[in-house]
Design goal:
The chain has 415 residues and is of the alpha/beta class. The protein contains 14 helices and 18 strands. β13 and β14 form a beta hairpin. α1 packs parallel to α4. The protein starts with a strand and ends with a helix. This is FAD-binding monooxygenase.
Length: 415
């Protein structure tokens, strides 16, 4: 086999997903992950588009459903907590804002990692710091000081990818900000109860509250009875340097969301006690190519659609399946990387297209725009329009990946 040893940077969702298929086809995979251990919890992600089809082919769909959050749908409330709109998950065939399958990012990553078994080597608390390739392979240097040669390298290390920076150029060339920031964190069941944020089964909704000035705060159910908090706000007036300063991030959140109603004060008060606080900009990664010789990018590293699209997990899982399949078909030749890009490019570009209005739909500027959003959502849910909207959601993702035959595994292992 031309490219039998493969280095994968990133142990989140895309990395273990592609490793699962590659080891099945007879490749030797090593995953490096900068965190010291598998990261549990995290925010909710969903399976939509073609990803449930891929996960089912992996034999993991039942395991994913068993760990799912069972969110009842999307609920919009005003400053007093009065319900304005309620959109059940099943309203549009599981393809609405809340999908049929919602699961914590860490839970999905754990299921995928467990499925790779003992045939994939995981190296935690390490990152790639250097890549040098020639016609026969790629020489990798790691933060531990170790060095190793691989036939191919896959960057599955997120929208701030180190592999992309080392092999393709600085992030500023490929990252396209969408004009908003987002933050999220977990609130334990104990703290939620003490803060008046605890819930019961009747409150298993993704609940959001918008306020004028491009601000949205939301809560989602956690699997253990806790709460996931989310903040989204417009980027105007905020220096990009905030991305490097966690203290400033919290200060900006307190400033932007001061005086906002509903549960906002309690959520802000709980923020300092969260051990998984996350803050980032809404941005899309767009590149002329995801392949450079023997190095390829996968998922958010090469084509992050941003959280505004809801398609990041879908693209990571489908991309992993296609990338591994094309490499198996070419017996590990780097030409398989180019075939992967050709097979995925149109699907990626369609999934990077945001709804009309983009992020502004999520964070309206005025009270009038917020009220109009409530009206439009109620109209979509009306009996005459609901079937039409459901058909529109169903038609937006016609892509079915190629079925790479299981016989590839036998063919690969014999070379």
């Amino acid at each position: 086999m031309a490219g039998r040893t493969i280095l994968i940077s990133g142990g989140g969702i895309a990395g273990p997903a592609v490793a699962y298929w590659l080891q099945r086809y007879g490749f030797d995979c090593t995953i490096v992950e900068r965190s010291a251990a598998p990261r549990a919890g995290g925010h909710a992600v969903d399976l939509r588009g073609a990803s449930p089809w891929v996960v089912e082919r992996m034999g993991l769909l039942d395991a994913v459903r068993a760990r799912s959050l069972h969110e009842r749908g999307l609920r919009m409330v005003d400053a007093r907590g009065t319900k304005k709109v309620e959109m059940p998950a099943e309203a549009f065939g599981g393809r609405g804002v809340v999908a049929d399958i919602e699961i914590l990012r860490g839970d999905l990553a754990g299921i995928l990692a467990d499925a790779t078994g003992d045939d994939v080597e995981y190296r935690y608390d390490q990152r790639v710091v250097g890549l040098e390739q020639d016609g026969d392979g790629v020489h990798a240097r790691f933060s531990s000081g170790d060095e190793q040669r691989f036939d191919l390298v896959i960057g599955a290390d997120g929208s701030h990818s180190t592999v992309r920076r080392l092999s393709f150029g600085p992030e500023s060339r490929f990252s396209h900000p969408l004009g908003a920031y987002n933050a999220h964190f977990s609130i334990s069941p104990e703290l939620a109860a003490a803060s008046g944020l605890d819930r019961d089964s009747s409150d298993d909704w993704f609940t959001i509250h918008n306020a004028p000035g491009r601000r949205m705060v939301g809560t989602r159910p956690d699997r253990d009875g806790g709460v996931k908090a989310m903040f989204i706000f417009g980027a105007e007036g905020v220096d990009a340097g905030v991305l490097r300063d966690p203290v400033e991030q919290r200060r900006v959140l307190r400033e932007r969301f001061a005086g906002m109603g509903w549960k906002t004060p309690a959520l802000l008060a709980a923020m300092d006690m969260a051990d998984d606080f996350y803050f980032d900009s809404y941005a899309q990664v767009k590149m002329p190519s995801w392949v450079n010789g023997r190095v390829a990018l996968l998922g958010d590293a090469g084509y992050s659609p941003s959280p505004a699209s809801g398609q990041g997990t879908n693209l990571a899982i489908v991309g992993a399946y296609v990338l591994a399949g094309e490499l198996a078909l070419t017996q590990g030749d780097p030409a398989g990387l180019t075939e992967y890009e050709g097979a995925m490019r149109d699907y990626v570009e369609r999934n990077q297209k945001l709804m009309p209005g983009g992020v502004d739909i999520m964070i309206p500027r005025s009270a009038a725009a917020i009220r109009m959003g409530h009206v439009l959502n109620r109209v979509m849910l009306s009996k005459p329009l609901r079937p039409l909207v459901a058909r529109a959601f169903a038609a937006e993702d016609p892509f079915t990946p190629r079925e790479y035959p299981d016989q590839l595994a036998d063919a690969a292992s014999s070379n």
